[in-house]
Design brief:
Number of strands: 11
Shape: globular
Largest sheet: 5 strands, mixed
Length: 181
């Protein structure tokens, strides 16, 4: 077991046991003990950027219900981070304009929509210097699962998994981007 793995295991054990102090997770990120999370509020500290946001901003304003045209490439360049998205992959980002989301993972080559709504979804990958990306609208009733893949030896291998759902009655969509490797 490497030193980094040991530090992560100790931090996890501390969180599960209810330690009253924070530990480093070996990657320079702070891991909050339950007592600290309670003091910070239900969702923890405010997110710093779009990458590695384990606790999404539940106070973020939900997307509008009205349909709008998909944003242009120049609009996406100025788009803010989608702070309501949960991201565990440090190289991927999620941005939002109106009800539209753009998920981008720079090292990946392909995007595969595993299941869910395909309406108004656009993707790009291997031919794009920015890496794999996907643009989709979040609307009430949507459910999606998407794999970000990369070429490994002789086949494609999953690198990140995106899930999006907005069930009727929910205040907004639940978007999670999970790093697999």
């Amino acid at each position: 077991m490497s030193r980094s793995d040991l530090i992560k295991a100790v931090a996890l054990a501390c969180l599960l046991a209810g330690c009253n102090e924070a530990r480093a997770d070996g990657l320079g990120k702070k891991v909050y003990a339950p007592a600290e999370l309670e003091a910070l509020g239900r969702d923890g500290p405010a997110p710093e950027s779009s990458s590695q946001r384990f606790l999404p901003d539940r106070a973020a304003k939900p997307p509008p219900a009205e349909k709008s045209a998909a944003p242009s490439r120049s609009e996406w360049e100025k788009a803010p981070d989608a702070t309501e998205a949960r991201i565990t992959d440090p190289q991927c980002t999620v941005k939002r304009l109106r009800e539209w989301y753009r998920v981008q993972c720079p090292r990946d080559s392909y995007v595969s929509l595993v299941g869910g709504a395909r309406e108004d979804v656009t993707v790009g990958g291997r031919e794009d210097a920015a890496g794999a990306w996907m643009v989709f609208p979040a609307r009430v009733g949507d459910v999606r699962a998407v794999e970000f893949l990369h070429l490994w030896k002789w086949s494609l291998e999953a690198d990140a998994l995106l899930t999006e759902q907005w069930l009727p009655g929910d205040p907004g969509p639940s978007i999670t981007l999970t790093g697999i490797r």
